[in-house]
């Protein structure tokens, strides 16, 4: 859990200390300035009562990619608002999330995270807004 | 995990079969037509890299209340879109979520979920839209 | 257009100077600390290509109520993010919007605006987040 | 107002009949399958009480591009939900909106609309979800 996915030690730390992400079995694949990629191998613990992957599990994966992407700058960033649209139901396999920065100002950064399945089809679209609190 | 929180067996089943909710330690408190309440006793597994409760854990709690509330009718309902605003950081204790139906048409239902801490202060505001797929 | 809808001169000014709200024919009904109500008498200029009231016109009405409600405090507030759900189509008559504050911190305020028709039925649910910039 | 911006007559009709878009001074630049571009030359009627372009005017421009993009298919599409983030204040000039389809299923389409100013800088990010009602 201490692999160097990013050249930025802050980004590695955001992931390494994230107990919730580890509890969900999320792996950070790579991270850079304003970006991050992660994956989650699906198991029974990710399913809802209908046997499909829980919206909360999909959100958790996307949220980790968002958190790592928005903490790639000097400022400590916290989530203000997220909008997520679910566009395809999934029953198993592996999910991938890729976060990209869509705007950045002194106080606010916005991020798009696309969640895809093993076939590369879009499962969910996650749009996050972060508040950049202070220098670390 | 098989207590009767609702007089509606479908609502109890939505919760009882929800492996993800159990993985997060969420408890259903009560449920009725278009409503549901749940709680989550916070532990280390709910924390992010900053030592505060993870946005994804807060989302998961609210999402369970949303799922139970929107499955109180004859139709099977699935989440289309969720918007969540984070308004207060939390470090531990217990979180509560209360879902209420804000509109209902043949195909679409909308729900508001308020997440509060032990002091009754608002932690997050979650607004979900569900698509009512078919009779069960 | 210079009636005193609020005891707070800042709230009256936010409305009185709002050229866009006047262009849409929006009237401010009343305003208080963290709240505002407005209405819009519908005409042909509010319709879309299907002959129903345009989502943008409904948004404009709700947005004016949001702007007046969030500028009832000492700080100058600007919109960061809005989520709107459309739950009923409307063809004419009068629309009403009522904004209520759902949370307030040093930098961020959140507001709910319910848009209703003449029958009191919900037409749209608008959730806005404002950034409180500075003392005026 | 009856120029052929698209080879698809339905797309042209969505714009041509849109009284609200004309009331705001919006022009459709081009449209194709799942896409549309529009612009709005800013005047005093687009301003709010602070002298910047009103969030509702920016929304109206993006919403027109969304409506034309999502009505490029055989089905009649109506807006269910929109999330908009405001990332830069603007005082005048020209605004552009470009809509792109981000997913499409039998009943639901999702669209991203980027609003930019004359310098090409992002002013707002608009994410819309449409319900595809029926064949026309």
Keywords:
136 residues, globular, alpha+beta, 21% helix, 3 helices, homotetramer, Thiol Ester Dehydrase, Chain A, 6-stranded antiparallel beta sheet
Describe this entry's structure for a reader.
Four copies of one chain form a homotetramer. Chain A has helices at 9-16, 19-23, 55-70, and strands at 26-32, 35-41, 75-86, 94-104, 108-116, 122-135. The longest helix of chain A has 16 residues, at 55-70. In chain A, helix 1 runs antiparallel to helix 3. Chain A has three helices and six strands; from the N terminus they run ααββαββββ. The radius of gyration of chain A is 14 Å and the shape is globular. The first copy, chain A, is an alpha+beta fold and 136 residues long. The first copy, chain A, starts with 8 loop residues before the first helix and ends with a strand. Chains in contact: A-B, A-C, A-D, B-C, B-D, C-D. Chains A and B meet through helix 1, helix 2, helix 3 and strand 3 of A and helix 1, helix 2, helix 3 and strand 3 of B. Strand 3 (75-86) of chain A pairs antiparallel with strand 3 of chain B, so a sheet runs across the interface.
Q: Quick recap of the structure?
A:
The first copy, chain A, has 136 residues and is α+β, with helices and mostly antiparallel strands.
Please specify the SSE layout and strand pairing:
The structure is a homotetramer of 136-residue chains.
Chain A: H1 9-16, H2 19-23, E1 26-32, E2 35-41, H3 55-70, E3 75-86, E4 94-104, E5 108-116, E6 122-135
Helix pairs in contact in A: 1-3
